[in-house]
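QA checklist item 7 of 12: single-chain prediction sanity check.
[x] sequence parsed
[x] length recorded as 363
[x] structure emitted
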Amino acid sequence: MPKFKGLEKKFQPDWPGLVDNLLRRGTPNRVYFMELFQDPEIKNAIAQRFDLTRGLNPSDPDFERKKYIAVQRFCGYDYVQVPLMDLDFQFHDAATKDTAALNRGDRAYRDEHTGPITNWEQFEKFPWPDPTRPAVTSELQWYQKNLPDDMCICGFGGYGHQMEFLCWLMGYETLCFALVDQRDLVEAIARKLEQFFAVCQERLLEFDRVKLVWSSDDMGFKTGLMISPDDMRKLVLPCHRQLAAAAHAAGRPYLLHACGCLTDIMEDLIEDVKIDAKHSFEDTIQDVCEAKRRYGKRLSFIGGIDVDFLCRSDEAAIRARVRKTLDACQSGGGYCFGTGNSVANYIPLDNYLTMLDEGRLYS
């Protein structure tokens, strides 16, 4: 079993330092880590391997929350991510067998052909979740009260999915045709989503321990955007501009996860939407070091260790890439270290731990 000397080092969370780093207030005195999420299978495997639940009672109704805090601290994160609850949409899904080593049985996918809203009648009858219900903030209420003082809450999950939900509510193929044949319906769905996500963010910002908000909205694919740049500016970016403005008015940075090649709208995201940090990097699209060189004086970045690379590489290659990335991105602040996308359950656990370990060793 590999030894992880970096993970053995004492870690002291420092959420104000994390926020300062994201706002580019100078080169930080250590590496700050961030991830969009870790799959539950990864978190459970880490907790078991390193005996992180010692002293916790599995019968405690808060056991899973306390375990999550322990895993975050062990891995070197200064925050927990807390979503709004019970805001599930009725999408059309398909499933296949999950072949990951730490598998969950089945893996679900969105139907790209048709979604639950393809005409006006379906739009009028669609059961939109209600973000004003008290139960929506149940997890936030617990972490607001019980999270250690040296950690903060990153509000995420269930909001900001403007482009994604347009695709998932209509089906991507249906959306593409509807942009010509039923444009008024597409615009109505877009406005409804804007209103829904605005209320979601209001609920997040009710909690003063939410120091960051992180929306997630995949906008493109390997070579371009899901829809035209002009349609992005009309149907998608206004939502994020509204959310960023509300976050800034409340004194919180607005972080955006968005997969795909976003070159055609990067200036819009920086100068118009005014995001504070961008996440999601694939080697086949853009290396995070290149992004930092190009935009680093105006924008912060999160992640960058390509998931495919992390799945396929050996320990030496992973450690070398971690150091190369940090050498290029640490100076001046505005960089948080992590994977290019998320800690999926198909990433070999030792490879993820090697990445974390080398980041903790970096100085």
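[x] summary fact logged: Residues 183-204 form the longest helix (22 residues).
[ ] second reviewer sign-off
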